[in-house]
Each structure stands twice: as C-alpha cells, then as structure tokens.
# Entry
Amino acid sequence: MKNTSIQFISSLLILAGCTSQSATIKTALVAADNQKVVAEKVVATKSIADLATILSKKEVPVLCYHHIKDFSASASDYMKAYTVSPAAFADQMKILSDSGYQTILPDQLYDYLLYNGTLPAKPVMLTFDDTDEEQYRIGATEMNKYGFKGVYFIMTVSINRPRYMSKDEIKNLSDSGHVIGAHTWDHHMVTKYAGDDWETQIVKPQKQLETITGKPIKYFAYPFGLWNQAAIPEIKSRGYQMAFTLSTKRDTTEPLYTIRRMLVPGTWSANGMLKGMRSTFNK
Ligand SMILES: [Zn+2]
# Structure
C-alpha cells in the first residue's frame, strides 16, 4: 500500500508539473493518508487472534466479590464463602496496590486476548455480582483510594430495592469509569432457559442497563457461574463480547465466553487472597 501511495503522489506531482499547484499536492497527500488508514485497518482485521493464540495467553486474575459486610464466626459456610468483611476488603485492596497490581477493565482484556493489546505488568480485574449496595458504598470507596476500577454485574430485578443499588448509584459508577455488566434479570441459571427466558434474562436487562448508563452493555456474568454450550450462541448473538464464569477452567473452544474468576472467601487474609490468586491464575 505504501508503494502505491508513493506512486499515486508521484503521478499527481507529474500532472501538477512545474506550475507548483500546492492544492493538488495537498490533496494527493490527504489521499495517501487515507490509503494508509485503510491499510492499517486491513492489518488490524488480519491480526485478530485465533483460538490457539487466545489460549496461549497468560490468564489475567479476575476476582469476584458478593457481600461486603461483617459476619459472625458462627455464620454458615455459604455466608463465609460469599462475604468478606469491610476490613478484609480494605486490606485486600491495599495489598494489591502495595504489591504493584493495577486494575484492568473488560475492554482491555478483550483487546489483550483478541488484538494483542498491552496490559500493565501486574493486571487484576475486580468484579462484583448481584447489585448489593455495599459494593457501591464500600467497594467503590476502597477502590478509589488506589485509583482502581471495577466491574459490576447487575441483576436488574434488584435495582432500587432496599439493600441493593439504586439506578443513580449504577449510573454514578458508570460515570466514574467503572464498568457495568449484566447478570440477568432475576438470577435464574442460563442452563435452564427456554422460550422467552432469553428475552427476559439476557435482552431486557441489557437494554435497561444501557438506558441507565448511556453505554453499550457488552459483558455478562453467569448466575452461579453456570453455563453450557447451548447458552453461548444465545449470549453471543445478543451482542455480548465476553462472559464470566466462577471457579471453573475456561473452555478450550469458547475461552471468551468462559472467563474464569476466583471467589474470595471471607475466611481469607489479604495474604491468603494474594496466594490464592497467584496459584489459581499462575501469576
Ligand atoms: Zn450472582
């Protein structure tokens, strides 16, 4: 393309002759620039990573939080698995920052996986499921101390309900640079959908969140982390670019729609969280 551009400019220069028609030359340069842009686009299209390349890339650690609140020693195992205390959450953000980690967002992960985009030396993604209000009140406040940004997967049935985030809070998160993703309407698992369920659980929540944030909603988290092969084309066809599971390994045929996350249990220390993260994601 470059040679063609030079030839193109040369021929226009010859046409312009000795009359020095600078406007013509300028037009030729603009045309050459446009050709260069087209050429770059062609190269970008060609460099989309194939499956083997995506799978060969180092996995980025993605952490997943649900409740951020105090719980008693006698709390159920379920509660302990899905809850971290505000103090533990604060410690975890601090140790990530002190250890040199920088948060990345799904667009960056997508760019890294598909277009070989660059990431910080120690990337981590922080995600929050289920719309709990303390993820806004405590989660965002603690992340802000270190310039961290997170990803909030919203279950739309809960919006504006007591103990959940309001529309304004979701909008505020989005405006502040956090990313809003979809987590269905009412948390039914995608493996059981039939008929109108796709519309109710996947399409309508996406539209509602797009109306709230004014931005496209491109990322999805499976309720309970559960997915099956039948669900992936349904999610893809609705414009979602990536989907997140929980602790299961990414699928070797659909790595973008089975991105693994690590649940951080409430029983872990900040150091334990770092160790768990490094062993899960081989960092
Ligand atoms: Zn959930």
Q: What stands out?
A: The first helix runs from residue 2 to 16. The longest strand covers residues 123-129. Residues 129-130, 183, 187, 223 surround zinc ion (CB under 6 Å). The two ends are 41 Å apart (CA to CA).
